[in-house]
Amino acid sequence: MIEIQGLVKRFNDATILDGIDLTIEQGEIIVVIGPSGTGKSTLLRCVNFLEQPNAGRIRIGDLDVDVARASKKEILALRRRTAFVFQNYALFANKTALENVAEGLIVVNGWKKARAHARARELLARVGLGDKVDAYPASLSGGQQQRVGIARAMAAQAEVILFDEPTSSLDPEWVEEVLGVMKQLARERQTMLVVTHEMSFARDVADRVIFMSDGRIVEQGPPSQLFSAPEDERTRSFLRKVLATQEAL
Amino acid sequence: MNALDVDYMLGLMPILLGYLPLTLQMAAAGMVLALILACLMAVVRVLAIPGLNAFTLLFISFFRGTPLLVQLFLFYYGLPQLLSVLTQINGITATIMGLTLHFSAYMAESIRAAIVGVDRSQTDAALSIGMTRGQTMRRIVLPQATRVAVPTLMNYFIDMIKATSLAFTLGVTELMGATQKEAAGSFLYFEAFISVALIYWGVVELLAWLQRRLETRLNRAYQR
């Protein structure tokens, strides 16, 4: 179980996260939606400590971290219990697909190379890239790169995988294959916290949808409830705009 | 105008080539030491280590801001007057010292630029899977920075090989010094200096060829 309490993040004078409380059950799939610039990505980056939050607590299993006073060791431990899928894939440009997935196993988990490579092959096969193990990122399509990114996150065996708009940089033709891999992970009950604008994914896959605005969680609930009967005016207005454009496609 | 004395040149070439190893040894030693020093300074600059950062900036400013020849004279003729331990310093050592300090100042800046130029997302990704800062630097950032830095560093190495010719002003009989002596003996200045020019040119072309091969290898991961 993951528990986030009173998470605050400020950049200079601007408050990006204004006290986020969020509990994620093991195996739960949570989708975070909301207007641009409301702190959705910052929330994920703070949980992974890619940004240092200013205040709050993050608890993952038996690891309980006061973020304002987190030691280097705690930050490292927290990162090792979370995995991240980036909007721009962020694959290691100097490494093959196989090496991208195996890197963490070798360097962080101290696995022998042969064992790590075998595991990486297995994971790449699971995301449908069994024939691309030796390809470098530059020679892969956006969809393929992002699937490698997901395999790399899976390799970490983290308690939760954080997805930061995983399909936003993709050409439309590659979106489905990435969402397909995510749906498969969801069926396996991998705990996921997903920031996305793909409302159909939220509706079909999420256990819970969270609507964020201005650094706060405005409302949350099962997708059926949040999409059909949103309570807050901000949620209604956002959904009207987004659903209108997505249905027009 | 007299005809070019080709026979003299053909006889001179092997003599001059005998001094090439010393030239290359000074350049190689200077390059290795300059690379080490430049990497240290680049890391100091990237991490903005207090104190050391300011010292590095001053160092770079001085060694980029003054001519190499002045620096060589300073080490060879000047410093021994100041510090008696240095009275033993020979021309070869002074040259290697000068080349190291002079070129490390330039190289530090290009290495720093290459490190800073590696996309932030690469660091984020490495940290996100639980790698430490040191592991991220060693395994992800530096290999990618190397690819960017190699062309400029090779340029400095080429420059350094040619700059070893200044050692003759410190009395070292290297390639240039030997040519000078031969020319003074034969009075065939044009033949002597065109011969030595061809030798430098050949060495540099060989290096440029090696550089192209190295770059092809380093770019392998980036082919579409």
From TrEMBL, chain A:
<dbReference type="InterPro" id="IPR050086">
    <property type="entry name" value="MetN_ABC_transporter-like"/>
</dbReference>
<feature type="domain" description="ABC transporter">
    <location>
        <begin position="2"/>
        <end position="239"/>
    </location>
</feature>
<dbReference type="GO" id="GO:0005886">
    <property type="term" value="C:plasma membrane"/>
</dbReference>
<keyword id="KW-0547">Nucleotide-binding</keyword>
<keyword id="KW-0813">Transport</keyword>
<dbReference type="GO" id="GO:0005524">
    <property type="term" value="F:ATP binding"/>
</dbReference>
<dbReference type="InterPro" id="IPR017871">
    <property type="entry name" value="ABC_transporter-like_CS"/>
</dbReference>
<dbReference type="InterPro" id="IPR003439">
    <property type="entry name" value="ABC_transporter-like_ATP-bd"/>
</dbReference>
<dbReference type="InterPro" id="IPR030679">
    <property type="entry name" value="ABC_ATPase_HisP-typ"/>
</dbReference>
<protein>
    <submittedName>
        <fullName>Amino acid ABC transporter ATP-binding protein, PAAT family</fullName>
    </submittedName>
</protein>
<dbReference type="GO" id="GO:0016887">
    <property type="term" value="F:ATP hydrolysis activity"/>
</dbReference>
<dbReference type="InterPro" id="IPR003593">
    <property type="entry name" value="AAA+_ATPase"/>
</dbReference>
<dbReference type="GO" id="GO:0015424">
    <property type="term" value="F:ABC-type amino acid transporter activity"/>
</dbReference>
<dbReference type="InterPro" id="IPR027417">
    <property type="entry name" value="P-loop_NTPase"/>
</dbReference>
<keyword id="KW-0067">ATP-binding</keyword>
<comment type="similarity">
    <text>Belongs to the ABC transporter superfamily.</text>
</comment>
<dbReference type="Pfam" id="PF00005">
    <property type="entry name" value="ABC_tran"/>
</dbReference>
TrEMBL record, chain B:
<protein>
    <submittedName>
        <fullName>Amino acid ABC transporter membrane protein, PAAT family</fullName>
    </submittedName>
</protein>
<feature type="transmembrane region" description="Helical">
    <location>
        <begin position="148"/>
        <end position="168"/>
    </location>
</feature>
<dbReference type="GO" id="GO:0043190">
    <property type="term" value="C:ATP-binding cassette (ABC) transporter complex"/>
</dbReference>
<feature type="domain" description="ABC transmembrane type-1">
    <location>
        <begin position="20"/>
        <end position="211"/>
    </location>
</feature>
<comment type="similarity">
    <text>Belongs to the binding-protein-dependent transport system permease family. HisMQ subfamily.</text>
</comment>
<dbReference type="Pfam" id="PF00528">
    <property type="entry name" value="BPD_transp_1"/>
</dbReference>
<keyword id="KW-0812">Transmembrane</keyword>
<dbReference type="InterPro" id="IPR000515">
    <property type="entry name" value="MetI-like"/>
</dbReference>
<keyword id="KW-0472">Membrane</keyword>
<feature type="transmembrane region" description="Helical">
    <location>
        <begin position="20"/>
        <end position="43"/>
    </location>
</feature>
<feature type="transmembrane region" description="Helical">
    <location>
        <begin position="85"/>
        <end position="103"/>
    </location>
</feature>
<dbReference type="GO" id="GO:0015184">
    <property type="term" value="F:L-cystine transmembrane transporter activity"/>
</dbReference>
<keyword id="KW-1003">Cell membrane</keyword>
<keyword id="KW-0813">Transport</keyword>
<dbReference type="InterPro" id="IPR010065">
    <property type="entry name" value="AA_ABC_transptr_permease_3TM"/>
</dbReference>
<dbReference type="InterPro" id="IPR043429">
    <property type="entry name" value="ArtM/GltK/GlnP/TcyL/YhdX-like"/>
</dbReference>
<feature type="transmembrane region" description="Helical">
    <location>
        <begin position="188"/>
        <end position="210"/>
    </location>
</feature>
<keyword id="KW-0029">Amino-acid transport</keyword>
<keyword id="KW-1133">Transmembrane helix</keyword>
<dbReference type="InterPro" id="IPR035906">
    <property type="entry name" value="MetI-like_sf"/>
</dbReference>
